[in-house]
Write a structure and sequence with these properties.
6 strands, Pentatricopeptide repeat-containing protein, mainly alpha, DYW_dom, six-stranded mixed sheet, disordered N terminus, 27 helices, PPR_At4g14850-like_plant, 572 residues
Length: 572
Amino acid sequence: MHLFVAYPTTPRPPPNHRIFPFLPFPLKVPRLLRHLLPRRSPLRRRRLPCPPLPLTNDWNAIIRGHAQSDHPINAVTCYLSMLRAPCKPDALTCSFFLKACARALARVESFQMHAQVLRSGFDADVLLQTTLLDAYAKCGDLDTACKLFDGMSKRDIASWNALISGLAQGSRPYEALKLFNRMMEGYDDGRGIMMPNEVTVLGALSACSQLGAIKEGDKVYDYIKKSFLDENVIVCNAVIDMYAKCGVVEKAYSVFEGMSCSRSIITWNTMIMGFAMDGNGLKALQLFNRMAGGRLGPMPDGVTYLAALCACNHAGMVDEGVRLFELMEKYDVSRNVKHYGSVVDLLGRAGRLDEAYKITESMPMSPDPVLWQTLLGASKTYGNVEMAEKASRKLVEMGSNTCEDFVLLSNVYAAHQRWTDVGRVREAMKTRDVKKVPGFSYIEMNGVIFQFFNGDKSHPKWREIYRKLEEINSKIREFGYEPEINYVLHDIGYEEKENALSYHSEKLALAFGLVSSDDRSPININKNLRICGDCHVVIKLVSKLYCREVIVRDRTRFHRFKDGSCSCRDYW
């Protein structure tokens, strides 16, 4: 009601006067006030005076409303109207404006408001500093966010959470985990640092998931149990997701079964997807059936069916996947493009490319680029040039310009020794300025995370690592290994192709794991791209020759190499 407080000295405006000109309707204040008064109040029969121009608090309320709406960028328009009114913004105005910028990913406006904060002398306000930090982090300007955090004289829990979450979501998980550990050390030592809460551990768990850092994840989970944060279902879901993405699905399932809080539908979906990524289609479907047959818990939704379809994909369970897809119609679960894409992937992996193509033509909605990329990938696996060219043309028509589109088509041509076509594709990549995503791999060793790029020589032990690779190549050749040179796209000599394959990031990480550990513990590697066929063959042989279990998580699934075989059964 404070928005419409009336003063008797205020002159009456025109009937359709708008107090806030940016509202989509004329605000007739006297009439509104009469409706708000009790029916028998004598004030309803009086001629009510009109309000003055809106105050700062009134503008703040409207800006805050826009910041929380579906169109937060409208808060910028509102703020400009406030300045024209004129009305002087305060620290809360700046805070609400920055929250709108964070939701709208408006980096330039955040920078401009930062300047306004400094000019107005609000930079000592901890709440405003935290909101500004959060805006920079969510807009992707993490370097500025880090500088702002380091320059804060006083930090609250929200400041730590904003930067940890921002780094984790901004593909800088190592820094996020480092900051979380710094926070934990300060809290344990009693240096006045706040106790990590639910939001803090969610950021740390996300970082562990991206890095495949099992030991660090264990530490975070120990803290969660010690602080009773495992009573929060959102935290439990994040723990399950972390363990599943780190390749220890048994621990994920143990957390799932031992939850003290009620499982949400997200809990079930996360666990089913965990089994799917691990290639354990049977357990994923068992859990799906348990969920579908339950009376008290949530029933499967579209995400659940998608997770189950992914499980069938990775396990090569074609008939079961098709049956699930048909069940969706029976139980009135709406299908979207991802469900169709999963079935196309399922049939494509099985080599049934014509059936997969027919599904793309029978879809009630338009296929998205991911679906055509899926078909292109299947065409590459089975060397179907005609289907690959069809999918590639569709991607060009849709304006897709990702590196993967061109690389997959190049792979198909290279496998058939069509170097002229490979050159044509590479020329198209240059013309469109398509940048290839560099391959890299993470490996955790003794609680420390190391990163390797293809052909990397930045590690202090790089000479020892390369010698180990030479030793590996020598040993596996005795078992009949021949480099899969078709995975090298350039029209170069055999020896050069062999060298190009030898120093892929996952091979460097594997050699480092063998050099740095003498025990029989598993070697965990996390790769940002799909593992290539040659690396897959090499790691299978290494697992047998060196009696080591190697777990590789690539972009789509886990590969568990043991005794010369892989859990994917060479189906990925």
